[in-house]
Structure formats: structure tokens, C-alpha cells
Amino acid sequence: MDRRNPAPLVDSSACLCRVERSVAGAAAARLMPRAKSCVQPSLRASIHPLKPKRSPGRDHRGGGGGQCPLIPGLPDDLAVACLIRVPRGDHWKLRLVCKRWSRLLAGNYFYGLRRRLGLAEQWVYAVKCDGDGRVSWNVLDPAQRAWRALPPVPGEYAGAVGFGCAVLGGCHLYLLGGRDPRRGPMRRVVFYSARSNRWHRAPDMLRRRHGFGCCVIGNRLYVAGGEGGGGGGLRSAEVFDPAKNRWLFMSDMAASLMPSVSVVHGGRWYVKGLGAQRQVVSQVYSPETDAWSPVLELDTMVTGWRSPSVSLACRLYAADCKDGCRLRAYDEAAGAWSCRIDSGQHVGSSHAVEAAAMVALHGKLCVVRNDMSVSIVDVDAGAGAGTPRWETVVSKGQIKAFVTNILSTIAGGRGRAKNRVLHCQVLEA
């Protein structure tokens, strides 16, 4: 098995709904996993929507019903206890062992058990855009300390702009809305499952929009603002509940807004952007009351708030310099930005090394830059005594970063059109 070429991390050419032609129909119905909304990267539904017919006495966790054991000589419960401890990076190998192992890893039981036992691993996914407008995505396994390119995103988003990105359930990466170069604003919603390793369709949004803000509160996906098909600003907002699998309208914003930065902090959603008259507008949404209100009592926070930012351990952090090597936190008690956390090693001020996103990774703050370099800092370590320790997970090297900085400066405006990280999220499986 080690001599085979490594399988792609995302199987974008195959569908769980397909069955080998050589397999008999009765056997296929018994061995097929459940995948209701599994689709191809073109997002066209399978023409063979087969559903498995399980016998009452069979269960993928047990060895009853005459099935071969997962591991010969071991009870299935003990075999599962062994398999869930295999590193996530080797799960594609487990799927190649046999159909029963592949079916086990295709269900929620395997990864749900890993999560309950604290064995789930967090990987960082970055959606980026190159100078020609092509959208691609990469994944970072912190244990391997290297980015790996993934197969193409669904066709609708290969050249889209202004689309949103969010994570539901800890393992589903959603791409929604945006503007297609040919079709204009979209209502389309798709999501990638880190458990099934495939793209799926989700219900379309109620309004076409791009350049909007989105967030997740209580495992519900909220979107607001942006521009619609007519080119004007939108005040409308909507929410997606995965439990009901549908979108619902919620209270309109106080004013139309093109969000430039947003964050969930203290159970509320803060949005900051440009209004209809190109003025800076800030609003806050409270899910409990389903109401928007202008941010007046926290003017100090809004004034010093910039992108990228992240809420970690009930505290709001934002970049204090272009490369994200110096951070500052908002002190709600004092009503001011303070507590600067400086790495002491800045990589430059060009677009290539500009901090594009901040995410929470294993309780630490992770900074991702446009050149795909990554730094991690444990902000809680400096709460008591001493300075938080910075760690470089992925580095382009000092010489390469220095050369890139010079070339970007010489190129001027052209350098700003190169690779750019659009969204960065963490998926757990």
C-alpha cells in the first residue's frame, strides 16, 4: 500500500453515490454508505440516488450478521478504538484497505467518537485568489508544518468574488453567495465535509448578494448586507439553521452596509464597513432580541478595530501592524485597546507578508499571511508573567521574504494583484 501514489486529500472526481459496475446490485445496496446530498464538483446531483438497505441485525460497530471483523482476531469495538487513534493525515489510507473500513470512515460515528474522546485534529484551510482571479484552496496540517494544495473548488466558485465562508458543526466548510463573472450575484451555497471528504449542496440563500458579512452563532449561519443584483446596497439579513436545513429572513439592518470586517464577541455580531454614502458604519446584532443597533457605547473599540481580528477566550484581538507580528487586545473594563503582544521579529510591510486572517487553533491565536506563512502565539501564556511565546509554523525563509518584500515594493500596484488569502477557517475531524 505504501508503494501507491498518495490519494488526493479531497476526492473531487468521485462520488459516494456511484458503485463499481462489476458489483452486483444486491451487494451494492448493502455496502453503499448514506450520502443524500453528495454531488460532483460541478454540483450536479447523481443520477443514481441509491439508498442502503440495512438489515435490522447489522451495525457498523458490531461484527454480527456474518460480517467479517474490522480487524481479524479483535472485537469490532476494540478495532474501532484502535482505528480512531490513527492520525488524520493517514485516513485516506484506511479508506483503501477494504469497503467496510471505507464505510466506517464515511459515517459520523467514527469522527464523532474521535471528537468525544479528544482525538480530533484541527487543520487550517485557506481559500485564496491568484493574480488572474482563479480561486483555489490549501490545507495546513500543523503536525506536518506544510501547506498542501487541494483539488479545484466547485466550478461556481472557481472565479467568483465577494463570496462568504464559514464553518458549521466544526467540520463543514461553507462557501456562499458571491458574484460570478458571467452570471452576476449568486444565491448558491455549497459546503465541504471534512468527514466525508466531499463537496455537497445546501439550500440556496433567499437573496442574491456579494460582498456581505457572515458569521456563526450557536451553530447557525448568519449573513447580512452586501450588494444585490441591482448593484445597490442591501439591508436585508438571513439565517441558515442546519437542523431545519432552510434559510429564514431576520431583522433588517439599521442601514445598508458593505461589511469590511466582522467578528462574533460576547455572543453578539459586530459589523463594520461602508454605508450608502461611503461613510464608515458600525452595527451590532443580538440573536436573543433579533435586533440591530448602532455601535455607540463602544466607540473606542470600533475606532481601533481593524481587520484581521478574532475573539479568543472572551477577548478581542486585532493586528497592530501590517504583518500581524504585533497584536493588541481590547480591555472592556478600561474601554480601550491595550495589552500589546509583540513578537519582536517583523517580516515586512509589503502585500505579500500582510496578515490576511486570524483564527483560533487549539486555543492559540494563529496568524496567516498572504504568502502562506503562519505564526502561532499562546496569548494566555503571557496573562500571568512573562511575554507570550511566538512560534513560526510555516515560514518562507528570511531570504525569500526579504526578496519578496523588495520585488513587491518595486512592482508597486502590480504586486498587490498577486496571491491573496480570501478566507481562512479551521476544520476538525
From TrEMBL:
Residues 72-110 form the F-box domain. The keyword Transmembrane helix does not apply. Keywords: Kelch repeat, Repeat. It holds the Pfam family Kelch_1. The keyword Repeat applies. Transmembrane segments: none annotated. InterPro entries: F-box-like_dom_sf (IPR036047), F-box_dom (IPR001810), Kelch-typ_b-propeller (IPR015915), Kelch_1 (IPR006652). This is F-box domain-containing protein.
